[in-house]
Amino acid sequence: MLTSKTIAIALFVLMYVLMVLLPKKRAVVALSTAAIYVILTLIGVGGDPILPITQVPSAIDWNILMMLVGTMVIVDYFIESKMPNVIAEWLLRLAPNVLWVTILMSLFSGIISAFIDNVATVLMVAPVGLAICKKLNISPVSMIICIAVSSNLQGAATLVGDTTSIMLAGAAGMNFNDFFVFHGRAGIFFAVELGALLTVPIMMILFHKDKEPVTSTEHTVVTDYVPTITMLGHVVLLIIASFIPEEMKPETTNGIICLVCGVLTVVWEIAKQKSTDGMWHSLKAMDWDTMLLLTGLFCVIAGITNVGVIDDLATMISKAGSSNVFILYSIVVWGSVLISAFIDNIPYVATMLPILGSVAATLNIDANFLYFGLLIGATLGGNITPIGASANIAGVGMLRKEGYEVKFRDFFKIGIPFTLTAVITGYLFVWLVWKP
Fold it and tell me: Would you put residue 82 in left (φ > 0), alpha (ψ -120 to 50) or beta?
C-alpha cells in the first residue's frame, strides 16, 4: 500500500512536470494538485493526512496575497498616472545603451528589495522596466526576469528584506545592525552585496549584444501624483513596520499596509474622478492568475510539509555532513539551493534552523556559521526557476499580461548564471570570514 508521503511526493513531482509542459495552465495545475491532496485526505488514502480541509486557510500566506492585491491596485493607478514613463525617460538619459539600462534596472530593484518585500519590489519596479522596453520597442522578458532575480538576491542583505532574514535574526538573536557587523566580523550583508556586484559582469556577458544606443527626448507629463505618493508611502510604512518586534504585530502587518494604501488610492481616485470606472479598471487589470498560482503552491507546500518531506530533507542534509565541517557547510548551502529551487524556502528554513543549531552544538562550532550558509543557499536558490519564489511568479505574471509567455528555459538562461554567481560568492565569503 502506498503511503501518504509517497503519494504526496509523486503528485508534487507530477505538478512540476505539468507546469513545465503547460506554462499557461500553471495556476490550474497547482490548484488541482492542492485539491487532490484535500480529497485524498478526506477519503483516507495513504493513512496519514496530507492536507486536511480545515488546514487550507492557514496554509495560504494571506500576507503575501494581501500585499499583491494592495500593491497591484496602487501599481495600476501608478502606471495610469504616467510616472513610470517619467522614470523610464530619466534612466534612458542616464544609460548609454540597452545593456546598461538592464543593469541599472536590476541594481535599482535590488537596492529597494534590501528594505522591503521582494514581491512588492517587483510590482513597483517592473512597470518602469515595461515602460522602458515599450519606448525602445524591445522585448521586456530579460529585463523583468533580471528585476525579479535581483529582488530575490538582495532580500537577504538586511533583516527587513525577506521573511527568511527575520527568521534567521530570531534564531541567532540578531538586530538590524548585526547584518552588517556581527561579533566583530563582517555580516551577511557584505556576502549578498558582493554577489550582487558580481552579477554585473554576468549581465554584461549575457546581454553583450544589446549595445543599441538609447536616448529620450520625450517629456511625459504626470497626470496625478497621488499614486506615486501612496507608492512611496507604503514603502516607508513597510520599512517602519519591519523594526517593530514580531511578537508585537500581526503576521499580516505588511499585507494590511499594502491593502490600506491600495484602498486609500482607490478612494482618492473615485473622489477625484467622481466615478468608479478607475476602480473597476484596477480590478480587471489585477493578475488573478498569479494569485491563484500562489494559493495553490502554498497549499501544496503545506501538504508535503505535513507528511514530513521537509523534515526528511533537512535531516538528510545535516546527517550527510556531520562528520566534517566543510562538507556539512557545503551540503547546507548547495542542498538548500537545490531544494529552494522547487520548494518555498520559508517552511524549509523554519525547519532547518533548529536542526542546524543542534548540529552546531554537537560539533561545538558557532551556529551562526551554518545559519548564514543556510540563508545564502535557501534565499538565492529560488532564482533558478520561474516558480521558485513569489517575486519570480509575480514578474512572470506581469509579462504574461503583456503577452509574453516565459518558459522555464527562458528563465534558466538568466536565473542559473545569477544564482551560481551570487551563491558561490556568498558561499566563499561566509566560509572565509566565519569558518570555525
Answer: left
Q: What is the pLDDT of residues 136-178, one digit of tens each?
A: 888 899 999 999 999 888 878 887 677 778 778 777 877 778 8
pTM of the predicted model, to two decimals? 0.72
Q: Output the CA–CA distances (angstroms, integers) from residue 271 to 79, 265, 277, 318, in the order listed.
A: 19, 10, 11, 58
DSSP state of 221: P
* Per-residue pLDDT tens over the stretch 335-386: 889 888 877 677 678 778 878 887 888 778 888 889 999 999 988 777 888 8
Among left, alpha and beta (phi > 0; psi -120 to 50; other), residue 247 is: alpha
pLDDT classification of 6: cutoffs 50, 70, 90: very high
CA distance 336 to 269: 45
* Residue position matching grid coordinates 537577504: 156
The alpha carbon of 367 is separated from its chain's Cα centroid by a whole number of angstroms, namely 26
**Phi/psi of residue 171, each to 5°?**
-70, -35
As a whole number of angstroms, the distance between CA 305 and CA 51 comes to: 9
Count CB atoms within 10 A of the CB of residue 72: 23
Residue linked to cell 566580523: 185
